[in-house]
Amino acid sequence: xxxxxxxxxxxxxxxxxxxxxxxxxxxxxxxxxxxxxxxxxxxxxxxxxxxxxxxxxxxxxxxxxxxxxxxxxxxxxxxxxxxxxxxxxxxxxxxxxxxxxxxxxxxxxxxxxxxxxxxxxxxxxxxxxxxxxxxxxxxxxxxxxxxxxxxxxxxxxxxxxxxxxxxxxxxxxxxxxxxxxxxxxxxxxxxxxxxxxxxxxxxxxxxxxxxxxxxxxxxxxxxxxxxxxxxxxxxxxxxxxxxxxxxxxxxxxxxxxxxxxxxxxxxxxxxxxxxxxxxxxxxxxxxxxxxxxxxxxxxxxxxxxxxxxxxxxxxxxxxxxxxxxxxxxxxxxxxxxxxxxxxxxxx
Length: 347
Fold this sequence. Notes:
The chain is of the alpha/beta class. Helix content is 50%, strand content 16%. The protein has three domains: 57-80 and 167-179, no CATH class; 83-165, no CATH class; 184-339, Alpha-Beta Complex (Lambda Exonuclease, Chain A), CATH 3.90.320. It has helices spanning 10-22, 29-37, 39-47, 57-70, 75-78, 89-107, 119-128, 138-145, 148-160, 168-182, 185-190, 251-257, 260-276, 306-329, 336-339; strands spanning 25-27, 79-81, 164-166, 201-211, 218-230, 235-243, 285-293, 299-304.
């Protein structure tokens, strides 16, 4: 790559490269998919740490459905519902300025949290922006700013820090989806929610699996949405919840477009490594399903056949080998197919 990459000087780029390659990288589905699509984009995101903030409605809804169904206790740690009754423009701008002041003070150990504890800062900002200065006293100016509506908005700003902001309509839709999933018996059965003391099932939600590989300069990892060990039938079921923007009947197209087949193949490798390699699971088999939710609230499991999963794994192995070349050569300028053909491709 050139002297400057993504506005980073050569010296800083070399340092970031060294820091990246000094660590043992764990390749995820998203990482391998990005590397296959564009090595340069992978380099910028993972090596240089220049991650882009991308908002995708389906992605947000998918994450919220995951949370409400699989880890509802984590909702307040990850999401906040936006305020519908907003302050008017000028006082809202003042609140944001004071809030930035609050964040800086908090870094220095200041423990104040409530809006009415920042009266001096509010008065200073009001003076700077020449707002409410026609009023005779500071008390009158503070009465304009320290209201119930402004208190609610201040509390919202604090809660929203580091969380995904959603509106009430998105929350209501996702909550309805989860309620429908919970009332769809075949989906709940596949995901192991009907297990009880008489049913020999082990259910894990949002479980991280890792495989370190001696033959490659990176390992692989994945967070499986739902894993069910069915001891009676000697099956390990892997279920991946997907929110799609198209009808459920078109989900096969999404598998190819978003390269979800990479994710399925990597999960197969991880389950084989972590579970099926152990004596107690030696005669178990693995099943993989997508649990698909579409905009029309159609919900159904889509099972991937053993034959298809094997083909996906073979294709993923090819991508992992190409990734190995990029890592060992430290070359991320062009896709592998260009590099092996002397930087050009004949079609």
